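Exercise 3.2. Students should predict the tertiary structure of the chain below and write it as structure tokens, then compare their answer with the key that follows.

Predict this chain's 3D structure.
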Amino acid sequence: MDNVIHDIKTERSNVSGGLPQAYRIVPVSFYIAAVASLMLSGYFFLSKRAYENREAQMSAMLSDAQNQKNQLLSRQQTVVDESRRSEGFAKWLEGSHALQPVVAAIGRSMGKNSTIAELSLDRNPEIPAHTFMQLKIDGGGSQQIETTLSEIYALDYQTYSAQQVKGRNSTDFQATLIYNDKR
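Answer key:
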């Protein structure tokens, strides 16, 4: 083995002359595109994270605003309910008038031969301006009832749904008294 072969390959002439100069831009543009895509991916990742943080902050602010709105609405509802109750109470006070002048007028209207056997004044709790009156008079008859009603009318009351029942010696009278505010 004296004869050592150093090179099995024979010399060949170039089959092609190499890449044109315009093709040398392809690998450079590949690396530029790869670096740009990495940078854009990082930018989009950071933008997405910032958007998620802003969205979390906005949802927290929205829930805080909703809680404040609910608190304000509950306070407003409390004020409205209290106002309604106050208005109802004020209307009740305005509608409820003292019944003492009515009782005194009925007592003063009785003649010599008439006496009050029964007197009942019941106020309607829902409409305080309406008072149900039951009056039983012994003696005097219809004339005494008319005298008593004229005294009641002088106090700015009107009768509604009046009923009169004559007995042997007594007269029963029932009516709803309604205060007429003429101011």
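Discussion points: The longest strand covers residues 157-166. The helical segments are 25-95, 100-108, 141-154.
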